[in-house]
DNA sequence: ACCTGAACACCGTTCAAGT
DNA sequence: ACCTGAACACCGTTCAAGT
């Protein structure tokens, strides 16, 4: 009877007699709605409509909207590929993992609004954590350092992808031509000539922004991995 | 007449004749409300009430709620201390900066929900970027590497602090005793014994969680800095 | 130039009532 | 056991009207 953390993962789900709706069905519809219309596009009423039921039906399967988001959130972590570290070696395993994580996050941009809001306690998130820990243990980290290495890596990926998501959603809103973007940058950054020059250069001379972003991601990833190796040696 | 990015920073603000309200007053009230009641606690009506005016008055000073958030967002970046790199040397400058950034973010936890949602285009954010770039240039980075180094560092701080924010808000919700937290962890992580053991150990044997988190932050920061130095040498 | 209130089209959630 | 609709207390935003 003690008080629990309020999370879907801390409750027993309703004993499912498999009659009408199911949690999986609801989560699937939630993900659909999130992927197509974004976080603001998800409402209990719309979700109900998509399920061919009243909005309030959902409350039978889930305590509230936040629990629904927890479910969807964890589902995303399940999509990330994490190779078996024993085969590939830790550095390649982590590299593959990090790129996969980035790709999955960019595919579900609404995740960006959840990372700072709810801890990842679901089975997929934990299993990801578990395998990452195994990978770092295999690399030679011990005790708390395993968790620190883990935290550092995930932090890098989170922190890189989140602003990337923000930028993408911003730019995709209206269709912007080069001209008007340049205008905006010039107004906004007029006091920072170095910054302005770089931004304009990158935006106009670089044809493939996506590749640039991936290169930048790889740079940072290599940085983090080198740093981790340095910690292993000391 | 071309289309602009829709951002407060891309518009000319209304010519202020300094009569009634002012943008600064409104932003101050917004920050108050955000700091005390969080992102969900901010509504145009409440804000209006706090300003002693109708909710719709705010729309004279600001196009919409998102612009208000952009204003508040940028204000936070202005609170971060960034030492002059020429005095301290780049490594100490960045270390001081990173810790200050973390502290400021933890003080305004609602920032966690904005980083994945709107790019930082305000003057404070840009000035921060500008000084960080200067610091990394001083360290010896050149060309695009300056921006990559910058992005890597900021990513690490963002990515560390955001889950930290999520955890704090989660745990502070209800007052949880050790007992019930342990119960929750055991239920949630029953399939991951290693993880579970570590979490319980940290939560029960470590008296000062804050210090642990800072230690972990410092570990990752040193990792990133070592990695950056490795890139400088090659 | 600045402020207002009413109105519109939404929200999440509760709850008594239905089957 | 599952589902419903009405109702409550909110939202952001528009707009005609006021000073």
Structure description:
Chain A is an all-alpha fold and 234 residues long. Chain A has helices at 23-37, 44-50, 65-77, 85-88, 90-107, 123-139, 144-173, 178-188, 193-205, 209-233. The radius of gyration of chain A is 21 Å and the shape is flat. The interface between A and B is large, with 80 and 79 residues.
Would you summarize the structure shown here?
By secondary structure, chain A is mainly alpha-helical.
Set out the fold topology:
Two copies of one chain form a homodimer.
Chain A (H helix, E strand, L loop, with lengths): L22 H15 L6 H7 L14 H13 L7 H4 L1 H18 L15 H17 L4 H30 L4 H11 L4 H13 L3 H25 L1
Chain A binds a DNA duplex (19 and 19 nucleotides) through loops.
Organism (chains A, B): Nonomuraea roseoviolacea subsp. carminata
InterPro entries (chains A, B): DNA-bd_HTH_TetR-type_CS, Homeodomain-like_sf, HTH-type_TetR-like_transc_reg, HTH_TetR, Repressor_TetR_C, Tet_transcr_reg_TetR, Tet_transcr_reg_TetR-rel_C_sf
Protein name (chains A, B): AcrR family transcriptional regulator
**Estimated structural class of chain A:** mainly alpha
User: Unreliable segments of chain A (pLDDT under 50, ≥5 consecutive)?
Assistant: none
Chain pair with largest interface: A-B, 80 and 79 residues
Mean pLDDT of chain A: 92
- Counting H and I runs of at least 4 residues, what is the number of helices of chain A? 10
- Name of the CATH architecture of the largest domain in chain A: Orthogonal Bundle
Helix content of chain A: 55-70%
Shape of chain A: flat
CATH class of the largest domain in chain A: Mainly Alpha
**What proportion strand of chain A?**
under 5%
Structural domain count of chain A? 2
Give the termini distance of chain A in whole angstroms: 48 Å
Task: Name the CATH homologous superfamily of the largest domain in chain A.
Answer: Tetracycline Repressor, domain 2
- Provide the succession of SSEs of chain A: HHHHHHHHHH
Assembly of the depicted chains: homodimer
Q: How many beta-strand runs of chain A?
A: 0
Rounded Rg of chain A: 21 Å
Question: Strand count, sense and closure of the main sheet of chain A?
Answer: none
CATH topology of the largest domain in chain A, by name, is Tetracycline Repressor, domain 2
């Amino acid at each position: 009877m003690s008080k629990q953390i309020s999370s879907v993962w801390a409750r027993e789900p309703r004993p499912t007699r498999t009659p009408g709706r199911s949690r999986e069905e609801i989560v699937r519809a939630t993900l659909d709605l999130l992927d197509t219309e974004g976080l603001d596009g998800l409402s209990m009423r719309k979700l109900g409509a998509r399920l061919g039921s009243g909005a309030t039906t959902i409350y039978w399967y889930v305590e509230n909207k936040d629990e629904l988001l927890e479910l969807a959130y964890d589902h995303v972590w399940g999509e990330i590929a994490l190779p078996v570290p024993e085969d590939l070696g830790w550095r390649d395993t982590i590299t593959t993992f990090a790129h996969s994580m980035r790709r999955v996050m960019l595919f579900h941009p609404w995740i960006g609004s959840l990372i700072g809001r709810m801890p990842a306690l679901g089975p997929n998130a934990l299993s990801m954590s578990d395998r990452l820990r195994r990978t770092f243990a295999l690399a030679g980290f011990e005790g708390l350092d395993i968790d620190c290495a883990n935290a550092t890596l995930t932090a890098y990926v989170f922190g890189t992808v989140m602003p990337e998501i923000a930028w993408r959603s911003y730019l995709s809103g209206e269709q912007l031509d080069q001209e008007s973007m340049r205008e905006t940058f010039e107004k906004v950054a007029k006091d920072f000539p170095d910054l302005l020059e770089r931004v304009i250069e990158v935006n106009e001379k670089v044809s493939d922004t996506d590749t640039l972003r991936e290169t930048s991601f790889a740079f940072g990833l290599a940085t983090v991995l080198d740093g981790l190796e340095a910690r292993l040696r000391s």
